[in-house]
Amino acid sequence: MTPAPSSTDAREGDHRVAGRSAYEAVIERLSKASVDKHWEPYRDIPWDDPEFLVDPADPRWELPEVDKLGGHPWYRSRPPEVRAAIGLWRVATAMKVGLQFENLLKRGLLNYAYRLPNGSPEFRYVYHETIEEGHHGMMFQEFVNRTGMPIRGMPGPLSAVAQVAPWIPLISTELFFVFVLGGEDPIDHVQRKVLKDERAHHPLEETIMRIHIAEEARHISFARHYLRDRVPRMPVHRRLMLGFAAPIILGVMARIMLAPPLAMIKHFRIPSNVVSEVYLRNTAAKNEIRDSVGRTRELCAELGLVNALTRRIWRAMGIWAEPR
Ligand SMILES: [Fe+2]
Ligand SMILES: [Fe+2]
What does pTM read for this prediction? Predict the structure, then answer.
């Protein structure tokens, strides 16, 4: 059994690598790390340990006061077991949406790998990543099952539209890896924030998050290095298209990953004025969406994908901030 990491690893450093061979060395290092440091949900998580059992009334599921919903007077006036159930519902929904995104991602990675030529260094790494995402899907679904709650993922129409994602690599592999970052970066942003908030977390939630953060650091690093290697070599017209598409994909993805769960709103009869105050007319909620794509936004700027024209799209999608 490999214990979950005891601390949150720093993000994979993605120092600019000069030239093709340095890029290939990064892929090799990531592949080796996938062999040396990986976790398997049914070997490394003690699901049936009494400490790890999920009780929806456990006060550790309660949302903290600093949370947008957790600090709202409506939430604070609910009985403790309802506050805990709402908190658990939200964690489980994030895992369900996460596993659906990762399902699309795996299919896209396999579509990408299908066409790779013999000897391609990306092939092995992409298979490592697909396998890790397979483990994440099992880990997230097992958690959802153990809540006993009727958790739903993405809303139906959105889920239908999302089925095009695995085919993006056939049009543009660069756009596909922007989509990958569009899902992975917001999840990573939220999970790191949760672990840093110094509250007592349920050990199962904490173990899952630590394992996920550690493995996602490699996936995010690969996507960023891939874009750094490929985008500068793209023909100008394709790079322009990518510049237009990137903020649209990122804006939509961040909203999908951070949206309030509609089934939860219905189940707990959260009044519409509360929903609107917490999620729609709330500057903190808007900033959260903007900040969750911060690292990808900076990467796009560095790669020359942001200009006066495309910046308007970033602004319209609500995900623009001046570079630090
Ligand atoms: Fe994952
Ligand atoms: Fe990932």
Answer: 0.92
